[in-house]
Design a protein that fits this description.
alpha+beta, Butyryl-CoA Dehydrogenase, subunit A, domain 3, Nuclear Transport Factor 2, Chain: A, 2 domains, 6-stranded mixed sheet, 12 helices, 55% helix, transcription, RNA polymerase sigma-70 factor, sigma factor, RNA_pol_sigma70_r4_t2, NTF2-like_dom_sf
């Protein structure tokens, strides 16, 4: 196998590492591309191509994360990771761990770690790298990496939610939720939501948003039930998907363009959180993006027309 073939074979793993460190599809793809350029320019063939490439993509991702942190401090509103619909790196023996580390909740917890802690945690806890391989990847001694791993694990365990293990149950609950969504069924929604459910959106100031979010079963159920019929009225389509390893959906306009990505956090048979990504810059890798402002204007016209009294003459 030549170098190009080895790189292509390892590309899904490299992307999986970079995405979990960065929380961004576009930045992870850039990190993988930079890794290829450095590999191609390397004068000597490394003893282990996998170890070399994983170390390079980790170092590039750490540097990119440090720069990204500065930008995120200036981000407008709530920040969520860019959604992914599938995990291209497949390992059946560790599918559950990989899916958990891909979730929005886990990626948001990783945001609390320093770049070095995050990289060490991803390599050690998610991909089961040994410390002899982690140390050169992050430029620290093995002893230092062990300490970084301990601190990172402590932070993650303290905040990690425990999601339902039964995938079929999650999918059935999500199906019921989106059925109630389409119908604007407040009571049906209330049955599925936890008492302290939260609904939050990431628009980056570039798409319409429902204020600062909604909290509690009553507010969230009313908000979803008010929004959904208008969305359906203007031809919007709810396309169920697994998003970041969790039950969710991609909302599209009548032309099939992406409006938003929805992710449901499910625990104890109830939806604990609804996270929506509306920032068009975070959706372009999924497909062509809709003009959400135009969609809102159309929905408002549809609402006004249904509220307008009949003009029939006697």
């Amino acid at each position: 196998m030549n170098g190009t073939e080895e790189f292509q074979e390892l590309r899904p793993l490299l992307f999986a590492i970079a995405y979990r460190i960065l929380g961004s599809v576009t930045e992870a793809e850039d990190a993988v591309q930079d890794t290829w350029l450095r590999y191609e320019a390397s004068p000597a063939q490394p003893a282990s191509t996998k170890a070399f490439l994983c170390a390079v993509v980790t170092r590039i991702s750490i540097d990119a994360l440090r720069s990204a942190r500065v930008r995120r401090e200036e981000y407008v509103g709530t920040w969520f990771p860019e959604p992914v619909l599938t995990d291209s790196y497949e390992n059946p023996e560790r599918a559950a761990e990989l899916a958990d580390s891909l979730s929005m909740a886990a990626l948001l917890l990783l945001e609390r770690l320093t770049p070095l802690e995050r990289a060490v945690f991803v390599l050690r806890e998610v991909f089961a790298f040994g410390f002899p391989d982690i140390a050169p990847a992050v430029g620290r001694s093995e002893a230092a990496c062990r300490q970084l791993a301990v601190r990172a694990r402590r932070h993650m365990d303290a905040g990690r939610p425990r999601f339902e293990a039964d995938r079929r149950e999650r999918e059935e609950l999500a199906e019921r939720f989106f059925d109630a969504f389409r119908e604007g069924d407040v009571d049906g929604l209330r049955e599925l939501l936890a008492a302290d459910v939260q609904m939050m959106g990431d628009n980056g100031g570039k798409a319409p948003l429902w204020g600062n979010g909604a909290f509690g079963v009553d507010d969230v159920a009313r908000l979803v039930a008010a929004f959904a019929p208008l969305f359906v009225e203007v031809g919007g389509v709810v396309e169920p998907h697994e998003v970041n390893g969790q039950s969710g959906a991609i909302l599209r306009d009548r032309d099939g363009k992406v409006v938003s990505a929805w992710v449901l956090d499910i625990l104890d048979g109830r939806i604990q959180a609804i996270r929506t990504v509306l920032n068009p810059d975070k959706l372009r890798h999924i497909g062509p993006v809709a003009d959400t402002w135009a969609l809102v204007r159309e929905a408002n016209r549809a609402r006004r027309s249904t509220q307008r009294p009949d003009n029939a003459t006697t």
